[in-house]
Amino acid sequence: MPAALALGPVLVFGGTTEGRQVAAWLGRTDYPFWYSTKSRVEMELPANGQYRCEAFTEVSLADFCRQHRVRGIVHASHPFAEQLHATIAHVSQRLGLPVGRVEREYPERSTHSLVHYADSYEEVVARLLEAAHEPVLALSGVQTIVRLRDYWQQRRMLFRVLPREASVALARAAGFPAEGLIPAWPGADLDEEVQLIRRTGVQAVVTKESGESGFLSVKIAAALQAGVPIFIVRRPSLPAHFHSIRGEAELLDFLYACTHGLTAGS
Prior knowledge:
Elements: H1 3-6, E1 10-13, H2 17-26, E2 33-37, E3 49-53, H3 58-67, E4 72-75, H4 82-95, E5 99-102, E6 115-118, H5 121-131, E7 136-138, H6 149-152, E8 157-161, H7 165-173, E9 181-183, H8 190-200, E10 204-208, H9 216-226, E11 230-233, E12 242-245, H10 248-258
Parallel strand pairs: 1-2, 1-4, 2-3, 4-5, 5-12, 6-11, 7-8, 7-10, 8-9, 10-11
Helix pairs in contact: 3-4, 8-9
């Protein structure tokens, strides 16, 4: 049995483009791993991977790591999964498990006068209301509908959500007006994004700093070309003990360190 297999698996948090990439990289190694998502996704794992689907609490994550003798955590979930960040941080420190954070590519923050960064959705709402922007187009994902409620309960907002029954159902459950929903896939086509802004006549765009995987550069460029301000919620900061992973080589270095005594604080 290869040494990697004798030392226990790593736990990968995925559900993203980066998560799938990590699974592919691990498939070229002998390292056993668990691939975990909050909601079920359809994907084929390599022979050394196992899949689980369900949100973790701190208690259940700690129990899982002990039961399966997890050697380390590879965190490749969404940058705005703040509750998951906190859960992983607390459990990893308690158990002494190293955490590798697979980083997305992020465009350099713009200094253009139409590009506005904010630390929270609440700040964005306050600034939109103060400037009297209406209507506003939200490209920040269905999970942020509730966070922007104080705006759309007062002013007209359009919200693009994924064209899936679950996404539309979430929007309706939040009480968002059905006529304001735009079920469509986000894309990398700049012309289509510009046309969407112009066709809807929105006066501002809201999104989050989700990186190039979330087509952030395209959204910024589209807003600038259409001549409307764009408000971007900054990505949350991560715990200092998370080790940054950029690419396959750094993942392999992290896995090697996991099997040779790297801990949460080292």
